[in-house]
Every structure is written in C-alpha cells, then in structure tokens.
Design goal:
Distance between the termini: 74 Å
Helix content: over 70%
Number of strands: 0
Radius of gyration: 32 Å
Low-confidence stretches: 366-379, 540-545
C-alpha cells in the first residue's frame, strides 16, 4: 500500500478558510446587532461579576474576543467603564470564546461536514450578492457565509490530517514531555493569531489519533497563553489603558495556565471520572472551559487590588492633550465616540463657567480656599484658562474630522453636527467675556460708583444664569424653558441694565469709567449668556430625539 504524503496546501487552505469564515461571522453579527451588544456591555458592567457574565455572553455570540476587547477599550477610554469592570469583561471574554470549540466538537466530527456547510454557503453567498440593498438580509448572508466557511475549512484540515494519521510518529517529540506540547500550542497560536483556529487544529489532531488527551490539553493551555500575543502586539505604541489590559490578559491566562499545567494529569483524570466523559473530543473542550473558569475564580476576588496595581503602570503612555475622554478612544465605534464628545461638552461648560467666574472676580466654581491656604494660593491667569478651552476645541475638531471618515448613519451625523455647534457656542461664550476681561478688571478696580453698581448686577446675573442654563439643559420634562424664553430673559436684562445706566448717567463723573466701556461689558455679558443658552438648547434637542 502506497503511503500518502501530507497535503500541506490542503491543510493551509483549510486554516485560511476557517479564519476567513471567522471574519465573515464576526462582521455579519456586528452588522446585525453590533450596537445592541455595545449598549449591553455599557449597561451591564457596573460590577465585576456582571462584567464577567457580560464578557462571556457577548463573546459567545460574537465569537470574537478581540472585538469585545476593542469595545472594552473604547468604553474604558470614554470613561463609561472602570478599569476593574473592564478586567471583568476580559476574563469573561476568555470564557466566552470556548463556545467555538464546543460547536466544532459537537458537530464537526460527527458528520460529513463539507456537505453540512454547502447549504449555509449557498444561501449566504446568494443573499450577500443579490440583497445588497437590504442591509439586514445582507448581514444574515455574511453570517451564513462565515458559518459555512468555518466547517468547510475544518473539513479540509481534518481530511489532511486523517490521511497521514497512521504515518506520523510523535514518540520522539513526546520524549520532551508535556512542556513541549504546551510550547507548541503557544508558538503556533501566536503565529496564526487565533486561539479558535488552534483549538480546531488540536481537535483535528486528537480526532486523528496523533496526540492523546494529556498532550492535547497541554497544547490547549499553550494556545490560551499564546492568544494573548494579539492584544500584546496591538498595545505596542498604544494608550496606557490598552497596555494595562494587554498585560492583564497575559497575567490572567499565564497564571491560570501554569497552575493548571502543574496538575495537568490529575485535572484530566479528575474530569474523566467526575463528568464520566467517554468522548475525548468533548472531554478536551470541557477541560478548555474549566481552564478559563479557573482563571476567573483565581482573579475575581483580587480585581480591585489588581486594578490599583495596573493604574500605577504605564503612566508615561498616558495620551497627551486637554480632553478627558476623547484622547483615550478611537473613532472606530461612533456611538461611543459621540457619547465621549457629549461628556467633553459638559466638562467644557464647567471650564467656561470657571473662566467667566474668574473674569468677573467671582472666584472658582469649586469652593474657595480658606485660612492660611488662601495666602499661598497662586494667582489665577484667566488667559491660561481661555487657552485651555481653545486647546480642547482644537482637539475635538481634529477628532470630529476622524469621525467624519467613519460610515455614520443619518442620526449619528446629525448628532455629531449638533455637538460641534454646541462646542462653537460654548467657545463663543468664553470669547465674549475674554474680549472685555480687561474692561471688567478696570471697572472692578475703579472708584466709580456707577461702574461698581453695574458690575455687581452683572456678577449676580452671570452667577444665576450660568447655573440656570446648565440645570435647564439637563431637564427632560416639559418645565424646561425653550431657547426663545431663555434668550428673551437675557435680552430683558440687557434692556433693564441699559435703562439703569442712562437713568444714572447724569451723576456720572467724567473721570469715571467711560459709558461706552460699561455698555460694551453689558452687551458682551448678555451675548455670552445667549451663546451658553444656544449650546444647551442643542443638547436639549438631542435629549428629545
């Protein structure tokens, strides 16, 4: 009987088809329910254990721990997730990705899987090509293509290994012990950049009788450690949060893997007895699940302390810039980016309010220092405060340009435009006051009773209006004032102040502050408040939508 040679290209083609199928499966599900999963992650991760369950569920559906990790990084950078919750999601994602192995072990070796894949490929390809005008059906087609390619690729790899199974002697390789299989799993997974693909290769080898359960489980442990290379490589040159999550993933998988490997034979034998496993394929995927479950149980009690440990690392990689959230995230997830911009706008309002307060000598928005602390307090430079606002505007404008390159839908485009209009109004509100800051200082330092009286009224107006505008912008009920009502109120104050000024002008000293200067300060102050009203009226429209 002629010995068959190993069909390397058939095996490699199978691996490529499998990986390509994973990509289509991921994109199909992302198109069908990507945003639903984003909202799900954001909503159900306020506790570590919830983060673990969420990470497990979402990864089991999406079949992509990499995508879930990218989502987590986006939420973490936008301030929607704490690092502790993000770590929980990553732990859950490791467990969720084992679902692929269960599906393959349950279906992939029990039937003619090439024939099984053909109906999925036929329906999927036809839907993808001819239903392009219907996004939902097209995404269903992409999902079916991915599902079919997974099993077609598996069939290629299985046939390539089955053909030479009785010709391969691994006794020489096995002499090095189980460490050799662990390293093999680690290295190959790092090369193919997919633990799911590696696990399918291991299952195929086990099914063909090339390796036993002990050796295959050692390779599984290596694959779990090797898969951390994806995030590790992606963190090079990345933000501090990305590096922290990458290192956390390495520590999670390596610690759990090494501990389990030390007791590998006992764990395999124990699983066999405890769960009465007669099918080696099913036992292997069970061991894979138990391995990731062990990692969760090992680290869950210490996530708080682990978070503190990670926060002290990679401080030099913290992104530069004045923004709090936008600088930490990518424009890849538009709805997360839009929420980050909204949070930045809230922060900018407080910066503008603080700038206006200091310009009118009202002090900071935060409580004023008392006692000896006030003696050593550094003098406030309002120009620096204004420049900070301008820097944030520049950073948000640059981020706006990046977001414009994304495939935004109509609602997202309108929301982005509204946010940028709010930004411009806030900056104009600060500029109105900056233009007369020197006049305000002149009035405050003068001995002109009329100028001082007008300034006092302006101070009270500014303090009342800035607080009222912010509170009104946050209201969601019918009692919230419309823009016209707010502007009318400001204009009424302007007319009142001008009338007061001219009623008292007859007693005004020629050596006092010029009337033109006082009227200009009044005009610019009211204009500033109008701009703040405009900014928050845009935000109110977003709330109503």
């Amino acid at each position: 009987m002629t010995e068959q040679s190993f069909d390397f290209w058939m095996f490699l083609a199978g691996l490529g088809i499998f990986l390509f199928g994973m990509r289509h499966l991921e994109e199909g599900i992302k198109g069908l329910a990507g945003k639903s999963f984003q909202h799900f992650i954001k909503r159900f991760t306020n506790r570590s254990w919830k983060g673990i369950l969420t990470g497990t569920f979402v990864t089991a559906i999406l079949q992509s721990s990499s995508m879930v990790t990218l989502l987590v990084l986006a939420f973490l950078g936008a301030g929607m997730l704490t690092l502790k919750s993000a770590l929980g999601v990553v732990l859950g994602a490791n467990l969720g990705t084992t679902i692929t192995a269960w599906i393959v072990a349950a279906l992939g070796f029990k039937m003619n899987i090439a024939d099984f894949s053909f109906p999925f490929l036929a329906v999927g390809i036809l839907s993808y090509l001819f239903l392009e005008s219907r996004p939902v059906l097209k995404n269903i087609g992409g999902f079916l293509i991915g599902f079919g390619l997974l099993f077609l690729g598996l069939d290629f790899m299985k046939d390539a290994l089955d053909a030479v199974a009785d010709q391969i002697d691994i006794t020489t390789f096995a002499e090095y012990g189980l460490w050799a299989f662990l390293l093999l799993g680690l290295i190959v997974t790092a090369l193919v950049q997919s633990s799911s693909a590696m696990i399918v290769i291991i299952l195929s080898a086990l099914n063909a009788g090339l390796i036993d359960v002990y050796q295959s489980f050692a390779m599984i442990i290596g694959a779990n450690m090797g898969t951390t290379s994806t995030l590790l490589l992606g963190s090079i040159g990345g933000t501090a949060d990305k590096k922290r999550l990458a290192i956390a993933n390495v520590i999670f998988n390596s610690a759990a893997g090494i501990i389990i490997f030390m007791f590998l034979e006992q764990v395999v034998d124990g699983a066999y007895v405890l769960f009465n496993m007669t099918d080696p394929l099913m036992e292997l995927v069970l061991l894979n699940t138990l391995l990731n479950l062990a990692g969760i149980l090992l680290f869950l009690p210490f996530l708080g302390a682990f978070q503190d440990f990670l926060k002290k690392r990679f401080k030099s990689a913290e992104p530069s810039g004045e923004t709090l959230y936008v600088k930490n995230i990518s424009a890849e997830f538009p709805d997360v980016a839009l929420q980050a911009i909204k949070d930045e706008l809230d922060q900018i309002y407080h910066y503008v309010q603080d700038f206006v307060y200091h310009s009118f000598a009202l002090g900071a928005v935060s409580p004023k220092p008392s006692g000896w602390k006030s003696i050593f307090q550094t003098a406030v430079n309002i120009n620096e405060k204004y420049e900070k606002i301008k820097c944030i505007e520049d950073e948000l404008s640059a981020f706006y340009a990046l977001l414009q390159e994304q495939n935004l839908n109509t609602t997202e485009s309108e929301e982005l435009t509204s946010s940028m209009m709010s930004l411009r109004s806030l900056v104009y509100g600060a500029k109105d006051i900056k233009d007369v800051a020197h006049n305000i200082k002149y009035m405050a330092e003068s001995e002109d009773p009329l100028a001082i009286e007008v300034l006092g009224r302006l101070q009270a107006f500014v303090k009342t209006q800035t607080e009222a505008v912010y509170e009104n912008g946050k209201r969601k009920d019918e009692k919230a004032l419309a823009l016209k009502e707010m502007i009318d109120k400001n204009e009424g104050f302007y007319e009142e102040m001008i009338a007061f000024l001219y009623e008292n002008i007859k007693n005004h000293s020629k050596k006092g502050v010029p009337v033109s200067t006082i009227t200009n300060v009044i005009k610019q102050t009211v204009s500033s408040m109008n701009n703040l009203c405009n900014a928050f009226q845009v935000k109110r429209r977003e709330i109503e939508i």
